[in-house]
Structure formats: C-alpha cells, structure tokens
C-alpha cells in the first residue's frame, strides 16, 4: 500500500470493530495518524494495539457519538493531539431492534435515530469547523444499501441511513467551494459483528441470496472505497453516495 495519507490526521468513529476497524487499519497503513473512537474502548484499544504493532500511528478514544458535547471534545482531542484534522469516517452505528413500525417503541426509535443519525450531524458540525481552519478536508459518512432500499423490521435504521444520504448532499453543496468534500458510502450486508450479533445463520443465508455476487461483503472491501473517497484521488467527488454492494441495488 502507498503512504498516500502520510501526515494526515483522520478520526474514525466505530473503529473498534467491523467496517470502522478496517478503515482505521488501512488508513494507518497508508500513513495516517488515526483517532480510533468507539464506545467500546476495549475494541478501540485492540485495534490501536494492532496498528502500533505494525508501526502505525493511532490512539484510542472513548466516545458516545450520540452526545454532542462528547463529539465536540473528540474533535478537539484530535486537533490538540495531532495539530489538525484532515479526514473523518463517521461510521459508528447500531442496527436497533428488529421489528416493524407498529411494534417499535418510541424510545427505541429515538435511540436509533440518536446514534445513527443525530451523531453524524454532530460529527460533521465539529469536523467541518476544524477542517475549515485547516484549509479543507474530506469526510465519509457511513450510510448503507438501506440508504436507498427499505428492509422489513429496521425502520429506524433505514430512516437514519436514508437521511445520511440527504445530509451528505447538503454538506457537499455547502462546503465544496471551501475545500471540504463530503461523501456517503452505501455498503450492502457486510460480515461484521453487527450482522453476526443481530442475525441468525438462516437469516444470514437468506441475505446472501439477495446479493447477486453470491456472498456478503468484507469490511476491507468497504474500507477500500472509503480510503479512495478520503484521498486526493477523489478531488472532484463530493456530495454523493457510493455503493459497495455486490450488485444488491442493481436488481
Ligand atoms: P459495522 O462495522 O457493520 O458498522 P459493528 O457493530 O461491527 O458494525 O461496528 C459498529 C461500531 O460502532 C462498534 O464498534 C460499536 O461499539 C460502535 N458504536 C455503536 N454505538 C456507538 C456510540 N453510540 N458511540 C460510539 N460508538 C458506537
């Protein structure tokens, strides 16, 4: 891998497992200084230890991304520790309970929207402020294939991931002339702890059939796209939504 992120400072939320872990590791391998932020500090520390063992630069940071003050403090930590902020992967999230709208409790709905949607607004607000001070930057918001498609039993997750696509478009319009690019990534079903914990084997086998490529995705395959969008190679790409989905949405 080339060191194309040498000297860059990047925050990855949800870096303690799955897609965020793969993003943090690939970014560090490519030379970035990574703030590996997660509610699960053990997970973030494990990822950072792996990165450091390979000679990379990263620090763990405990965060609940649904707390706006904590998000502001996380961005301030990156800037005071590493001097600036160049990139961010707003990836932390939860699937939420699996049940249809009429059965969804109000508090369950609010919690998923807080963690999956409001958090990304908080992150972008503070990240963009820091990036503007530094002459620009690049942000990737982790949406989902469920940013365009519905999925029975996941109304709050689907609503959040659709909203992230809209918010990404707006950020692209608002900041493209100011050097900050913002994109959303839409992975189909990726084999991560989120999927393994939420869905039994039969459901996972059913999900495989929804992907014409014949398998679920791998976290590394999402991270490949994230790194491209964060990099200067994507200098004309902003305000848009990019699938990594094994042809799921093509059907
Ligand atoms: P995926 O990689 O598919 O998104 P995972 O469940 O493997 O799914 O990863 C999501 C990550 O987000 C986990 O490491 C989890 O601890 C983290 N996370 C979940 N909720 C929060 C939160 N409120 N604040 C910070 N991190 C969170």
TrEMBL record:
UniProt keyword Kinase, yes or no: no
The keyword Thylakoid appears for this protein: no
PROSITE patterns for the chain: ADH_SHORT
Any Pfam family the entry gives: adh_short_C2
Highest taxon, organism lineage: Bacteria
InterPro entries xrefs: NAD(P)-bd_dom_sf (IPR036291), Sc_DH/Rdtase_CS (IPR020904), SDR_fam (IPR002347)
Sequence intervals crossing the membrane: none
Keyword annotations of the record: Oxidoreductase
Family recorded in the similarity comment: Belongs to the short-chain dehydrogenases/reductases (SDR) family.
PANTHER family: DEHYDROGENASES, SHORT CHAIN, ESTRADIOL 17-BETA-DEHYDROGENASE 8-RELATED
Protein's UniProt name: SDR family oxidoreductase
Species in which this protein is naturally found: Rhizobium alvei
Taxonomic path: Bacteria, Pseudomonadati, Pseudomonadota, Alphaproteobacteria, Hyphomicrobiales
């Amino acid at each position: 891998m080339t060191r194309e992120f040498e000297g860059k400072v990047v925050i990855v939320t949800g870096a303690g497992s799955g897609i965020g872990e793969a993003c943090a590791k690939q970014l560090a391998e490519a030379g970035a200084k990574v703030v590996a932020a997660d509610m699960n500090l053990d997970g973030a520390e494990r990822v950072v230890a792996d990165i450091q063992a390979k000679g990379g630069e990263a620090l763990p940071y405990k965060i609940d991304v649904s707390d706006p003050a904590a998000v502001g403090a996380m961005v301030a930590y990156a800037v005071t520790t590493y001097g600036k902020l160049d990139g961010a992967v707003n990836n932390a999230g939860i699937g939420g309970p699996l049940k249809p709208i009429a059965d969804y409790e109000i508090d369950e709905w609010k919690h998923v929207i807080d963690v999956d949607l409001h958090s990304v607004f908080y992150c972008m607000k503070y990240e963009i402020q820091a990036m503007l001070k530094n002459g620009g930057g690049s942000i990737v918001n982790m949406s989902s294939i469920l940013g365009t498609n519905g999925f029975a039993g996941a109304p709050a997750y689907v609503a959040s991931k659709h909203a992230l696509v809209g918010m990404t478009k707006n950020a692209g319009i608002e900041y493209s002339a100011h050097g900050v690019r913002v994109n959303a990534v839409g992975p189909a079903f990726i084999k991560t702890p989120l999927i393994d914990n939420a869905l039994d084997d039969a459901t996972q086998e059913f999900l495989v059939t929804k992907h014409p490529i014949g398998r679920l995705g791998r976290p590394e395959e999402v991270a490949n796209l994230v790194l491209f969008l964060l990099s200067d190679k994507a200098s004309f790409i902003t305000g848009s939504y990019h699938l990594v989905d094994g042809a799921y949405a093509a059907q």
